[in-house]
Design brief:
- The chain is an alpha+beta fold and 424 residues long.
- Helices cover 43% and strands 16% of the residues.
- Strands 3, 6, 7, 8, 9, 12 and 13 form a seven-stranded mixed beta sheet that branches. A two-stranded parallel ribbon has the order 1-2. Strands 4-5 form a two-stranded antiparallel ribbon.
- α17 runs antiparallel to α19.
- The longest helix is centred in the C-terminal third of the chain and has 23 residues.
- It starts with a helix and ends with a helix.
Length: 424
């Protein structure tokens, strides 16, 4: 009887251990975010998490979508910080939350070798990387080849000039209804300043502590952009000249010749146009006998929360999520320009879809301005972009360009001073 009871007790203990090992009590829980209202990315993250959990049943991965900087700060303050965080151009404002990646890259040297070096550098400060690059978006000019042909124009070549763009845009712009407002427009230029800043030298001094916006080359390029925005050139649709349609709508309707786009707008165009179109690098500007090219690119990446309870599992999931195979699924949809060189070669540059000149997006990383790569960029957006360039006065021509740039110079210096005060 005693032996039978002991046997039964051992069986109960064994069964209990089996139950404990097969329930969720033993699971490792990690969470990962992704930003903004981009459904294709949300679906990609969710499906990636599901596939990882299927292969690793002892891990629970919780995807958190639409989590920008303000939501991230709220989560961290509430004690529920995500383990793996999507990081955008304000990454410097998040350094205090992020784990330095020196050890991660040391342990995963082959993974790092596959990353585009410039994208890695974009998240590096004082020799330390704080985010694994995910993708980048450079800006190019897309054009409606059929509209150009009907206007007696050839597609722009790689060596076209700003004067060429303006003269071509004037030939395209037409008022077919006779109401005084063109129905077909020449060009739409992005309302942020980074693209034309790039015609000058860096907006930061070499040591990263001083503002360097007020340059003759930038005065020249800014004047062209502001003349287009304000309607002075008569070639750009905007609310300033009484046009409510967005550039995206005008382009897909076949009513816009040239449009300043980022790579993330490629799927939007692919889904909506039935005419021939392509992309070209920004036109050159002649300055003191040399040719300069404008443009800007931004990066996005993933940082590991410095106080995560499961750093090893988070690192494993990051390697899985950002592997060439998983990035290829999102790349093939045209949604990203991946940080993986393998995926760039196998998927991004071989999509088989328009635009044919996808290589231009990659080439632009070598010369376009990356103002966001300075960790003070969050401060720059708050001090310089929002209150100066994201205003009516900057776009309707009521403030001289020199005044805008002088004010920007002072605002940028304030932003840099505030940032360095936090790290010195």
């Amino acid at each position: 009887m005693i032996r039978r009871r002991m046997t039964s007790a051992l069986m109960l203990v064994t069964m209990a251990l089996v139950v404990l090992s097969t329930t969720g009590l033993a699971k490792v829980n990690i969470s990962v975010t992704i930003c903004c209202e981009q459904l294709d990315r949300h679906e990609w993250l969710i499906s990636t998490a599901e596939a990882y959990m299927k292969a690793n049943p002892d891990v629970e991965v919780e995807p958190l979508v639409d989590v920008g900087l303000s939501q991230l700060v709220t989560l961290i303050a509430g004690g529920v910080a995500p383990d793996l965080m999507w990081i955008g151009q304000a990454w410097g404002s998040e350094i205090g939350f992020l784990m330095p990646l020196t050890e991660f890259y040391s342990k995963n040297a082959a993974f790092k070798r596959d990353l585009v070096p410039g994208m890695v550098d974009g998240f590096t400060f004082n020799g330390v990387s704080y985010a694994i690059p995910f993708s980048a978006s450079s800006r190019l000019i897309t054009y409606n080849a059929e509209l150009l042909l009907r206007s007696g124009l050839q597609p722009p070549s790689k060596d076209w000039m700003l004067d060429d763009m303006i003269s071509m845009a004037k030939k395209i712009t037409r008022d077919t209804s006779g109401d005084g407002v063109p129905d077909i427009w020449g060009v739409a230029l992005n309302w942020q300043p980074w693209t034309f800043f790039a015609y000058g030298d860096s907006i930061y001094t070499e040591d990263g502590r001083g503002a360097n916006i007020y340059q003759e080359a930038i005065i020249q390029s800014a004047g062209i952009w502001c003349d287009a925005w304000s309607g002075k050139l008569g070639i750009m649709p905007s609310w300033v000249v009484g046009v409510d349609d967005s550039p995206g709508d005008l382009f897909t309707q076949g009513r816009l010749g040239f449009w300043d786009i980022g790579v993330f707008e490629v799927p939007f165009i692919r889904d909506r146009v039935g005419f021939e179109w392509d992309v070209q690098e920004f036109p050159l500007m002649e300055y003191r006998g040399e040719h300069r090219r404008g443009g800007a690119w931004t990066g996005e990446g993933y940082g590991i929360y410095r106080d995560t309870k499961n750093p090893d599992e988070v690192a494993r999931f990051a390697l899985y999520m950002l592997s060439p195979q998983n990035l290829a699924r999102l790349t093939e949809a045209g949604a990203i320009m991946p940080a993986s060189r393998q995926t760039l070669s196998s998927s991004f540059l071989r999509s088989g879809q328009e635009p044919r000149n996808m290589r231009a997006f990659v080439d632009a990383l070598d010369y376009q301005m990356a103002a966001w790569a300075h960790p003070a960029f969050g401060y720059v957006m708050d001090h310089m972009f929002q209150p100066i360039w994201n205003t009516t006065e900057a776009h309707n021509g009521t403030v001289p360009v020199q005044n805008l740039l002088e004010t920007s110079q002072k605002a940028l210096q304030r932003a840099l001073d505030e940032f360095w005060a936090t790290v010195d």
